[in-house]
Design brief:
Strand content: 25-35%
Structural class: alpha/beta
Order of helices and strands: EEEEEEEHEEEEEEEHEHHEHEHHHEHEH
Largest sheet: 8 strands, mixed
Shape: globular
Number of helices: 10
Length: 423
Amino acid sequence: LRSGGKGAFERVSSSRFGDGSLKPIMDAGVDGYYLFTDSASAPTRGLISWNPVTDDKISLFRHDDVDLDGFYVAPHPKVWAVRYVDHYPKYHYPDSNHPYVVLHQSLLASFPEDDVRIIDQTDDLSLAVVYVTGPQNPGTFYILDTVNKTLNHRLDTRPWLNGRTLATMEPIEVTARDGLIIRGYLTLPPGQNQNLPLVVLVHGGPYGIADSWGFHYEVQLLAEHGYAVLQVNFRGSGGRGQEFLRAGFGEWGQKMQDDVTDSVRYLIAQGTADAERLCIFGASYGAYSALLGAYRDPDLYRCAIGYAGIYDLPLMFRQGDTQQVLKGVNFLKSAIGTDQAEQRRRSPVFNASLIKARVMLIHGKLDERAPFEHARRMRKALIEAGNVPEWLVENREGHGFAGENNRLEMYTRILAFLDDNLK
């Protein structure tokens, strides 16, 4: 804090990743008070008004089980809605008399299959920008006339998908082998629900990141081609508070992977997934999880796809932008641990001989987060094990492909790879 905007800054709060934090957002409209998101004083992230001089904190919103996802202000600094995700997006209204509350509830009722957000407005609140999206709606922008109560269509984000039948997305809950409740999402090809080829799509991060309900182009692409898609928010993922986040610390290659495996086996037991047609796919940490799953459960998956992946845990301490700063080194020590023998035990590169699944590796040579050396070593280890992988490398791409032609080639080859192995 710099009182009065002058002089030196005085520290009023500090935090470490995993211990929660106070993050300033804007003034609260009351002298001396500011809006903060707060995960330091409670298990989940909430919204507070805080006077850092007197240390007076006023709680504006906090859910018992899930984190605050966002909030909406109109006019500044009036918070009229708070968003959180409890399987689906949901809203809390601090002031039921605010003029936008009834309008927003009416819009949600008008678009029952979608999420509706009022994302901007004029100073007098007479006009607002409304964004509507959901699993089957890539996103549509409207102009809301709050005086005349009219909604005027303005822009579709992916108009080429208009008229196409997209897949629905439903939340699932699975009890992991140690009793922890794991959440995730299941997307099924339209009109199908039993004995399906399944792609397990593992998110990156891994900490603090979570898959959410809504439109995902990659998920819809896979569903369009007949694949069920499972997304697992394993322990360590975001959105469910600090305890769930910390539950993933040190669990790379262990309980975090167990959560994915247990979710897959749940779908097999339910009859949704065909146990003989399973593939695991991910980017960054998700690629690590894909190759790890292929050697930890060698009889479970027919194929594994690693995209911009990390496959050699000891190498993370020597190459890549994470280890270049002290914060990154501390993160690696917390996430992975410092025992090199244990790191090797949990690294796909050193366990390639255990992999029975067919493998596809995708990487950009300019990747600074997961250096290309990870993919090179993984490919070499697989070839030495007699399991020659599919190989797609782009010289001018980094941590994920950005070029349209490169992405087109990548997804074309991914679909062909899946068809070869699962159909």
